[in-house]
Specification:
With 300 residues, this protein is mainly α. It has twelve helices and four strands; from the N terminus they run H-H-H-H-E-H-E-E-H-H-H-H-E-H-H-H. The protein has one domain: ABC transporter involved in vitamin B12 uptake, BtuC. The strands form two sheets. It has a two-stranded antiparallel ribbon.
């Protein structure tokens, strides 16, 4: 029983992290049809920004340590918005409507550029921001199982972000306009929707979500060069399993991948490295568009 509980909770924690990483990627693709390979760099920039600011905050007596939890989303909002708007307005707006393969190549080049930029800004030494992680302590679950409260809190955060994204898309006027752009870009333009502004806002939101995932993860990891490249591969696997462009699909894909990996870690750790891609292979073999993906009509 305790082993089953450990698999379930570990899987939920890992799934919450995967969803945080994949949410921004699937939002950008769903609206702009851009598979943004630079999303991993947004994650890295958020992590580095948070680790730097949290390290500075705890390096001296600067008040209540719990204020550090506000620094994490603040870093993501500022860093993600600045980088996202700069990239969209400075480059991608000139490429709207281009072939999706070209956009993959362009954003992959951005990933490489931003990876080197983070090394120039923060260097190659690891950054640690463990204080917020340790500050919340641990909780005993079952017999002999203890989990960090920070990890458990990430589950709640990911659920709130998922519900917030659903509410914004389905219960607000801006969300309905965005869904119109997703459904048919040309008709939306004909009806007076400022599609370019929608694209800029969407890319900035996606960048902020990517940076938020990095900022919230920073207290639990060692922030080192290359984390953005590792993350984009996992995020891509999740959104492909769930269905490109679907928030619900990203959540379902994250849960499926998270629980599968947790099961492998506890039962067969030798296949842990392969289970994520095994799940992706099985899903795509049965349903090529992903669990919640829609088969789009081909325009001739």
């Amino acid at each position: 029983m305790s082993n089953f509980l450990a698999i379930l909770i570990d899987g939920a924690i890992y799934a919450s992290w995967l969803f945080l990483v994949a949410a921004g990627l699937t939002v950008i693709y769903g609206v702009m049809r851009v598979l943004n390979m630079a999303h991993g760099s947004f994650y890295a920039i958020g992590a580095y920004s948070a680790a730097s600011l949290v390290g500075w905050y705890f390096s001296g007596e600067r008040g209540d340590p719990y204020w550090a939890y506000l620094l994490l989303p603040a870093c993501a909002l500022v860093a993600g918005a600045i980088v996202g708007i700069a990239i969209e307005q400075g480059l991608l707006r000139f490429l709207h409507g281009r072939d999706e393969i070209l956009m993959v190549i362009v954003t992959y080049a951005l990933l490489l550029i931003l990876e080197d930029a983070t090394k120039l800004i923060w260097g190659v030494d690891p950054y640690f921001a463990y204080q917020p992680y340790r500050l919340l302590g641990q909780t005993a679950v079952g017999e002999g199982l203890r989990f960090a409260n920070y990890d458990l809190a990430l589950i709640a955060v990911s659920i709130l972000i998922g519900l917030g994204a659903w509410f914004a898309l389905n219960r607000t006027n801006k969300g309905r306009l965005l869904r119109a752009v997703i459904h048919d870009r040309e008709i939306a333009v004909a009806m007076g929707v400022n599609v370019n502004a929608m694209f800029a806002a969407t890319f900035a939101i996606g960048a902020v979500l990517g940076a938020l995932a990095g900022a919230l993860t920073a207290p639990a990891i060692s922030v080192t060069p290359g984390i953005g490249v590792e993350v984009i591969v996992l995020a891509f696997a999740v959104v492909v399993v769930g269905g490109l462009g679907s928030i619900g699909g990203a959540a379902a894909g994250a849960v499926l991948v998270g629980l599968s990996r947790s099961f492998a870690v506890h039962v067969a750790p030798e296949v842990e490295l392969f289970v994520i891609y095994g799940v992706m292979f099985l899903v795509l073999a049965i349903r090529p568009q992903g669990l919640f993906g829609q088969t789009l009509a081909r325009r001739i």
